[in-house]
Specification:
mainly alpha, single chain
């Protein structure tokens, strides 16, 4: 909105010309969403407490310590993230850009699904919420619509092809199947972040790290000069997603202020499903779907730990891990919560560096 308002005035007021620059708007979006989250954080938390008398329902089959340390803490804090993110994007992004609207749609759509799931949990006072089948169907529908929109926005030579990291000219054609692959990327990222969100601050920092990596990727693939120099597949218009990623980072930082141990609020499915969907949508739009699996490798490992646990238990009646997802396994082994969280952050940063290396090693 602001770029559209200031552009006609930039000839008379040179300072307004800053709104033309993507880097300036990305920085402004980050600061705006951080400011909104910090200012409204306490009010949102008080509002959540007003109808969540017992806070987030705690799994009885989870770590025993959670029944003491997590009890009474409100959930649905993703509302704060989505509020700050959306307002910042509407203020600083070029609203004529289709990529921004497509990714915002899947973000808010998954966020609404997560909100409904959280609402059922806190009102019915159990940990079930929306059925697994119902959640997957809703995610698939939203993901497929977004995928079709992104395919329509992408250049013809890229729209239905899958790019491979480390290989500069290789594209794997999937034709009409690609929208379903893109849908799977968004669904997978959404559920992977959701599974990782189990300890104070555990999921939000890796989300910020991935957001920072994709802010750079979006900026590079959206700039023909940089894309050609690095031998990346250029995606005209995708640079605007750097503003989206920056707003996501700022909103996440503001949320972390309240989610830092001991957490005053949990993001819930409202936040985790939305943030994962956003990362998935951005990865599809920038043609770096596989790189997301590298950068978000922590989310992948957490998801695999659940799949392996369920598969092996059904076949043998025995468990591979003391508890899944993986962070609960280390809790059962006696690791302190801050130790697990910080070590997982370190792993996320290392994986982000590996993901960044794909931009140059080709």
């Amino acid at each position: 909105m602001i770029p559209l308002l200031l552009a006609p005035l930039s000839d008379d007021f040179i300072l307004f010309n800053l709104a033309r620059y993507l880097t300036f708007r990305a920085g402004a979006a980050c600061m705006t969403s951080l400011f909104i989250a910090l200012v409204f954080g306490a009010r949102v938390i008080n509002w959540l407490r007003s109808f969540q008398r017992g806070g987030q329902p705690i799994r009885e089959d989870g770590p025993e310590s959670h029944l003491l340390t997590k009890k009474g803490t409100p959930t649905m804090g993703g509302v704060l993230i989505l509020l700050a993110l959306t307002v910042s994007i509407l203020l600083w992004a070029d609203l004529r850009n289709g990529f921004v609207w497509a990714v915002l749609m899947v973000t808010l759509g998954y966020g609404a699904l997560g909100f409904y799931d959280d609402w059922l949990k806190v009102t019915k006072r159990n940990t079930r919420g929306v059925s697994s089948r119902g959640k997957l169907v809703a995610q698939a529908g939203l993901g497929l619509v977004t995928a079709l929109w992104l395919v329509w926005l992408l250049p013809p030579g890229l729209s239905t092809n899958l790019a491979l990291p480390f290989l500069k000219d290789t594209l794997v054609p999937f034709s009409i199947l690609f929208p379903f692959i893109a849908m799977f990327v968004m669904m997978g990222a959404s559920n992977a972040v959701n599974l990782t969100d189990g300890l104070d601050g555990l999921a939000i920092v890796p989300v910020m790290i991935a957001g920072a990596v994709f802010a750079l990727i979006a900026y590079l693939v959206g700039n023909r000069i940089f894309a050609d120099y690095l031998q990346l597949h250029a995606v005209p218009g995708a640079g605007e997603l750097a503003v989206f990623c920056s707003a996501l980072i700022g909103a996440s930082l503001g949320f972390l202020w309240f989610n830092a141990p001991p957490a005053a609020v949990f993001m819930g499915d409202t936040g985790s499903l939305a943030l994962g969907g956003a990362l998935g949508g951005i990865a599809v739009a920038t043609k770096h779907e596989i790189v997301l699996a590298i950068v978000g490798g922590l989310f992948v490992v957490e998801t695999l730990s659940v799949i392996i646990q369920v598969f092996w238990f059904k076949r043998t009646g025995r468990r591979v891990f003391l508890m899944a997802p993986l962070h609960h396994h280390f809790e059962k082994k006696g690791w302190a919560e801050p130790t697990i969280v910080i070590r997982f952050w370190i792993i996320a940063m290392v994986l982000a560096l590996v993901g960044l290396s794909t931009l140059k090693i080709r």
